[in-house]
Fold these 4 entries.
Entry 1:
Amino acid sequence: MRRVRVLRDLIVAMPDGVNLLADRWFPAGDERAPVILIRSPYGRSGLIGRLYGRGFAKHGFQVVIQSCRGGFGSGGLPDPLGDERDDGLATVAWLREQPWYHGSFAMFGPSYLGFTQWAVAAEAGPELKAMATQITASQFRDAAYVGGAFALESALGWTALTDPGSPFMPVTSMLTVPRATRRAALSGRPVGELDLLTSGHPLRFFQELLAHHADPAVPYWDKRDFHPRVGEVEAAVTMLGGWYDVFLPWQIKDYLAMRAAGRRPYLTIGPWYHVDPRHGRPTMAEAVAWFRAHLLGDPSGLRPDPVRLYVTGAGQWRDYPDWPVPGMREQRWHLQHGFGLGREGPRPAGPDRFRYHPAHPTPVIGGPVLLADSRPRDQRRLEARRDVLVYSSPALDADVELIGPVTAELFVRSSTPYVDVVVRLCDVHPGGRSLNLSEGVRRLGPDDGAATVDGVRRVLVDLWPIGHRFKRDHRIRVHVAAGAYPTIARNPGTGHPLAAGGPMIPADVEVFHSPERPSALLLPRVPAQGRSACAPRG
């Protein structure tokens, strides 16, 4: 490993006169090595500097770590998501003017640091040779409004964590912020007041998220959504995600957009959640190999197949040539009378019913949340509730392996047109433990779903992708509910804006499972094949 030097507080002038600060790490004696650019709202020294600045410089790269606008010494006011394209492109232009610039560069970073890469990737020019992105996506809109439902816990937690006036101590904020967020959410106060309860003052970005819903046509998202241009990115891209990460569905959409444009990105998905420290070492190992291949011309560290997946339940890493994986076939598992679940079509039967009351919202146990441990948890306490319908298969007579996208097709009727449909997939162990693996939500209004004359609507719900083996003697289980609080904001049943609070209307929900209305989960069945792979290096 090489000795490393660092020059701190370099001034990068933006076109509007604001100065952003950056640190430059480089290997001693090689001041014109290829550059890795990292743009961060979380600072540029401390752990980030040691892990990324020193870490990559030891491998022969220069590293420029810049603080985004409005934080850690950089000027201007923070506008989360909104300034990253313009500031990023101005930084790339500054980079080209430096005497130590090699002539090519790469970008790196997880989460928001990955979003800052996508913000400039389509316009950075041919000198951008490579990108290494982790637990991130090219747009955060759909993660803030999952299936149209406001992702309350994640949105409130992140805005409280990153607000310049945050009262939380940086060293302990990853513990204190989630606790404060959940306390606020469980207070019963209107959603628009929860930032006051969490931080003691209004959080501008939280209020903006509440005001600008998930419709991509809303002008607010014009400069905050870069997914439409993902296919234009010519840089070599590697992506690392987790089965329990909040951004996984949209990270996979980015992968598919690049494949549709003829690119060949790499994709790694492990048994990780967003703030899981276990993906730190694979992140660095894969990025070093990627940058050596595309900046230094040394592809020896790259694996032959671009897709690497950890199959939970089997405990195996597998390599595949693409996503969806070869041999995947969509299977319908039908909801059955008597709360069964099976491959055979449903028989004539009446619907199952439950009542959802937003004043006492259906809670959630686990599931993807930004700042929490999102690994699977036992759902039996939730399954005992009257506002959760539970459908289970018989014990499996052979292993069932599912790798790919998961969708629910449900036929539902509600006493109010404003209702959420929450679907969850679980693995039930022989002893009765029921572990959540994948879930999704769809927020309905009067115009959502193709209603029949009697008010029954066909509703499609996208769940999190899955890579899991249900072992012999286990059971496949499906939940249907109308809430997952506080992961998503409660649906008041009125169609009124969330922020203001006000009256709440209970929803009496019916779920149909008959030959005419065959509610089912569409599962990605694969044969027991695929080469085992070593765990990602590190």
Entry 2:
Amino acid sequence: MTVQNQPTTFSFQAEIKQLLRLMVHSLYSNREIFLRELISNASDANDKLRFEALAAPDLLADQPELAIQISLDPAAGTLTVSDSGIGMSADEIVAQLGTIAHSGTAEFLGKLTGESRHDAELIGQFGVGFYSVFIVADQVEVSSRRAGLGAAEGVRWVSDGEGEYTVEKIDKPDRGTQVTLTLKDDAREFLDPLTLEHLIHKYSDHIAFPVRLRKPGDGESGAEAVNQGKALWTRPRAEIGDEEYLEFYRHTAHDFAAPLTWSHNRVEGKREYTSLLYVPSAAPFDLWNREAPKGVKLYVQRVFISDQATQFLPLYLRFVRGIVDASDLSLNVSRELLQQDPNVAAIKSALTKRVLEMLDRLAQDEPGKYATFWKEFGAVLKEGIAEDPGNRDKIAGLLRFNSTRSDGLAQDRSLKDYVDSAPADQDQIYFLIGESPTAARGSPHLEALRDRGTEVLLLSDRIDEWLMQYLREFAGKKLKDVSRDAPESPAEGEIAAAGTEPKERKQLLKRIKRVLRDSIDEVRISRRLKESPACLVFKEEEIGFQMRELLKAAGHDAPASVPSLELNDAHPLVTRLAAETQEPKFELLARLLFDQALLLEGQPLEDPAAFVRRVNTLLAEPDPAAQGAA
């Protein structure tokens, strides 16, 4: 993009226009957060320059100090926040202030309702704090020059937040970014020095750079640092209050909602590092995008290294936010070498255990908060069962399930709950995977177990079949999929008592197999059915419907697997089928029975039109009882 020496007008991306229209209403009651967001962005810019200067010290030569300054001009009605950080080029200022690159943008905007508190939390999750300036400003001017560029390479961005902005080249003597707000008439309170000092202490005391407030009448050297200017994580835990931890989280995660829990820990000895880790209360919109920004902030001896250090936690814990500050990592290694550094591997192992312990404490001490965590991040945590065999038992203890003993569709049962309440002689943990929680709860596979009072865990997440291939046992008990092959066929005496005679039964099974030979592996009488006429069953080693869809969505070919059809020999429909002597009618009924079983598994029919024709044929038949009465 070419930026001219005179203002050139651009339009905001459509998503930003929609966001700006909603933001003023949604965040108006908490509009002071604009200052927190501007100071946080300035701090990030300083951090990034300090990191780049490790390899290019000349970047700091003309302005060695990294600081943040807030200036007031009551006469003009302006408030300015300046930093001496990395700055932005013309292309970067358009990319960062004119578009939203987040994945999940459409989903995010669709969830905005106009209800203030709800929308404020969503906006925080989406991380678009800069635009909060338009809550208090009629006009915003951003002047910036990227470190390493000449004075003539400065750029100015101006907008009133109504849908357009202008960009032009300017001469800017100093690197860094300066944001000037022309405040609205009802926002003049933010020109009061005492108000600003209070807000800086409230939101930005932990910022590791001096935040100076230049009041009207101050000389060039008159601005004093208002904040403590000491990185929060370097202070003893006993000196830090909950509100400070919460504000640091908002600074680090750009999230307006409070986290569920956090852990601040310093390790000394062979490897020295400090970690401050948080578990958010809501999932970001790009949680399932593996290419999205993730990971903790990395510092080495309080020098910022990376915003997205993915080497220190496994991918299944990608929802964790916070910082790691290590003392003995080289500052000059590449990202690839960091991944091979034994110190990094040791820190990753320790931090993983710490997060799992945080979650375990949350589950034990605050089950209500853990239920929130599970709703937001449970499906991601499940990935750890496959990806982290060394911690599989710990992760398994954190899993939560819907169950035949749950209250409705609540996911409130742990594997420990199941084992503790099961009969002493029950050596298996039973589970069922369904297309949805409701479908699983109504599955015919549960009928015999329900009659016996046996608990079954009900799973329906898209990754559950994949998950259960790795979770084979817990507390010495094997996990058993109740939709798979039964251990044995019913005895001949049971079959005779249930419905058809053995000879009739064999003939029935042969006839059905002949009709459905292209769709099923075999036909057999079922032990598991009590109310339903039929169900589909896979062999233990075969993949089921859910896993097949997961592989297909990932672009993989699924290996062939064909279900068997199990029949309830005592059901009136099966009895009628056995008594049917006309082959066309028998074939119609057999195919309907198979279609029913397929629908109960939540699967689409291969030929819905043929299914409808079969149903219509049956419905159009004359009623024998009515004919007899006539």
Entry 3:
Amino acid sequence: MEEYRVLLVDDEEEIREGIRVKIDWAGLGFALAGTAGNGVDALELAEQLRPDVVLTDIKMPYMDGLELCGRLKSLLPAAKLVVFSGFDEFEYARQAVGMNVFEYILKPITAPELSGVLTRLREELDRERSERRDVEVLRRRYDESLPILRELFYTRLLDGRIPPDQVRDRAARYELQLPPGWWAAALVRADVPGRDGEAGRDELVLLSIQGFFQSRFAMEGCALRTVLYNDTVALLVRLEEEGRVYAFTEELGRLCRLAVPLLGMTLFAGVGRPCPGPERLHQSVEGAAAAADYRVLMGAEQVFYIGDLEPNRSAWLTLDEADQRALSSAVKLGAREQVAQLVHRQVDRVREARLSLPQSRMFFLEILTTLARMARAGEADVEEIFGPGFTGMVSITDFRSLDELEEWLLGRTLRLWELLGRQRTDSAWKTVEGAKSYIAEHYADPGLSVEALCGQLHLSPAYFSTLFKRETQKSFTAYVTEVRMEHAARLLRETDEKTYLIAQRTGYADPNYFSFVFKRHFGQPPSKFRAEGQG
């Protein structure tokens, strides 16, 4: 099994060396990844090594062990912390417990004692790793949740809350078969004699209706799926061809009549228009709900097909919320190819539906309105996207063909995609430049830290650290050190100030630590650097 990485921190080299030699790291399941003589160096090492365990002394120069633990809680929240000290003080122990320190050990430390702590640590880390990697446990939990996840999937599908390009992948994830073809939806409700209107929506009644249709439905050439949906039973069928919807309504009529003697219920159903693929089932559901509302006007009828009641089949071709979310997601975060596919898909819907000119105008304006709304929300210049003097009055008759319209629409959409992408890049650049300016102004402050900077920028330290390293290829600590060293070198070359004054002017309260960092950075101490006039 992979060894756990350990970072050892103590200002006494003799103690560090003794622990390094006397502990059987490999035998205990660990690897000593690094050592540090103070908390500042340890923090920088931790950022590079990402250790699983940090063993640290309390009393150290520049940054003590408790402050280090506090920083590590944010930097490495999963790391286990072990604190040891020669001071048996309750306050230290209390603070250590408050930081979720795994163990607090009093000096002098013996090899058996530390080995025992490491053994317990390994058991804890093994347990956590096992939980993360136990695929069987996760699979069992998933299988137990699968019926609920399937119901939730169908509900979201019928509500139109699943992007069309994700429907098949999600169905496969839940082991559901939704093959391509014509799909239609019906919504069934019940009137129960001797009860109020709400009784027909009781869960037990709905379950009874659901079981009735599952066992009695007998239409050749189509498969039935039943779902409890918004106080109704939704029937979803895949048809061999669009015209088979009338055979579907006939079968529903037969079952509604059969329900009276068998269930003691009067059922009625609304049927939506067939749609080309399960991705558009929410449109058929909308039609089924509208058809069911005709029961008030149609009297004793039990099955109502929206295609008979509202023969204008193009009425449901709209840019619904799912389409708007998909377009917004592609423009804000997607690739150029994804944007092009979505625009082509929307124009193809107009081609396939054979809309009248007024209806095509309305659909086109819905797309334009969505793009304009996204531009305003992203503070993008609308005229830069649609051209000078744009007022929204672009008509479909301005184009000679749907191909020409699609080309124009794709150009405007990609322009919006480029502007929003540039804004995201500019925002990251401005944030990092602002951080650099702040560092340039405050590098002489010993209290300069990523937390203080993020308080000024109103960002989380974790997000800022990732952004800063991505833009500069340096960690915050390394960048601040570089700035301070550059200023220190200049002062050594151009002034006769004492080293301890230069240390203070570059943010180091301790001149010894300044000399330590300077030598590590330039390869020689400040005095020799000044004497040789290097730089």
Entry 4:
Amino acid sequence: MIRSATGILARLPALMLASFVVASSVVASPALASPGAPASIPRPAPAPVVRHVSHDFGTPVIDDYRWMEKPGSKRLANYMRDQNAYTRKVLAAIPGKRALYEQIKKDANVGTVVFWVTRADGRIFYMGIAPGQNTAHLFVLDKIGGKPHLLIDPMQFSKNHVPQALNYYFVSPNGKYVAFGVSGGGSEQAKLRVLDVATQKLLDIGITRIDGDNTDFPPIAWLPDSKGFIYYRLHKFGTQAPVTDFYQKSRDYLHLLASTDPTGATDKPVFGWKIAASAPMSIAQDALVVTAPDSHYALGLFTENEELQSIDDVYATKLSDLEDGTPVWHKIAGRGVQMAGIALHGDQLDVITPNGAPRYKVVGYDLAGSAAPKTVVKPGDDVITSLAAGSHALYVGAMHDGMGRIMRVAYGTDATTMVDMPFQGGLGQILADPNGSGIWFRLSGWTTPSGWYDFDPATGAVTNTNLQKPPKVSFAGIESKEVKAVSWDGTMIPVSIIMKKDTKLDGKNPTLLIGYGSYGITLTPFFAPTFLPWLDHGGIIAIAHVRGGGWYGDAWHKAGMKQWKINTVFDFIAAGQYLVDRHYTSPAHLAGEGGSAGGITIGGAVAWRPHLFAAAIDSHGDTNSLRMQFSPNGPPNEIEFGNVLKERDFHWIYAMDAMAHIRNGVKYPAILAVTGANDPRVEPWEVAKFAARLQAASTSGRPVLLRVSYQSGHGIGSTKDQEVRSLADQDAFLFWQLGVPGFQPQ
């Protein structure tokens, strides 16, 4: 994620180190073949080595590529350019790659993907990517089965053909307006605009420095009367400000549609940095305002790392005072509550909290102050993941062993109803009807296509809305299974395995192990037609649900963060060892993949157990955690990883830093390191440094390649074609290194 929970992988549209090292050193590893890059393609010059040793809290840290961090470094630009050119030539020379690209492209266009749905004024708004479309568009339907009307094509805002992405959209309660943001080239820095739905014309509004999305950090909150909205805005810093200030000192502003100022320059700040003495904000926090159509209150939230899953403090003010520009903020709950999600309805705020509940519970707060907080949903075996406030009841999303569940809790009573789920799968968005009593929800399985389902509380019936039609592709003959691998300390790690039913467990299957493990994010079941090319070539796909994620709730998350972060790496290694021990694959045919914060996972696995893998994909990965602190996105991630400038934190960050544990003369697996030149979350130099260090250290003869996209960022906002090309490059690279026939150079 690193900063928000966005697309983690391109495939989706306490340190007892000594005991582990001793245990792993006695595991025999067969000799691996070393398919190197074609000799006919001249290799570029290696990255210059500039000796740099720092002694941090008594620990010598060698960083011969520290020079890459210099802003605007021409040497870094030249290195990345030359490496990317070489990588493209090497990948293009892989037999079968072109056909693989065409196959993945076909599978990526088997149906329309519908996501982030909103209902307003009886109509249905949604983001969708249809076959042949390259980016997500915004559509509106008058009714299910009706003809979709296109509202926003983000490419209409493109200049010089730079790819554009729709970062977020928020419909006014009366359904007349859509506030939305579009950014270019993967930058994620969107300009806020407003569309008149009836005329499909843009209002004279264009406000910059708006960061956020629909899911983890909604930057727009409409007033219930639809006369304006509150928006989150990053602080404007001077050219001499340090880069680490970028995400700090945010504020929320009130904008009325009647305003004559299109840029927001005269909009009044109502919450955030140094706005209200009654609501003090630290420099490390983000400020967010939340409203609800049926509430007379507005909420002011201070969060960490732009996440609604890490709320520090909640304040409330009367909506009438906010609309007048004179809010009076009163504190409702503080950091000690450990809020992990909220739902506002009427005069009540419901909060997900792990206090006394490792798998969470729900507590209700009376915003009028006439009643003490009370438990709405008691803790149980299910992990509570989300809340949606309906007109008559609160809907509680949960999961059991990763599979989604929904509970209906009627307001004012203890009456609860479990929704009858149509199949076992991963639960996505729950959409409460603001004018009705039911909900829609999205459900997907490893081998079952995603669908949007309607729950009618009057009858208990669950029906497919057919908002998203089944794709024209079948997973018949493909199975999924859930197993558990034992990690270094005896903890059982869930692993999902997807493969063809007739796959022989002979240790020869090309296998891709995927892992993430940060922020409490869970890789729940999803249906990915682009898995098919891998499976059709006899491959197996496995997902390791390592600690640091949320598979078993808050305790599972905390067991893989800060001083316990190394558990994430060791859990991933344990999952790989399980696949080898059970003969799903062997080290010669096993590859690993991690992206974003999952760079810690895959980078650490490569560093600690290089002989377990033949190849690995580092996708926009945090593989130099010791230096993350000094990037724009470093300070916001202190809550998850710690602060490298503090002695206690330094030692565990050193343990999780993959680059710090690369050793000269070791036979490392083949590596394809992937980055985007406009990445706002993990600096491209992190990925470049990791690649350069491995190129200098490895003696396996296997290639270490650096792939750079110059019109994308962290992957959020990438076009479908960019994703398909990147995935084709990754799969072809892995097939080559894992010995798959048809991908071996002659």
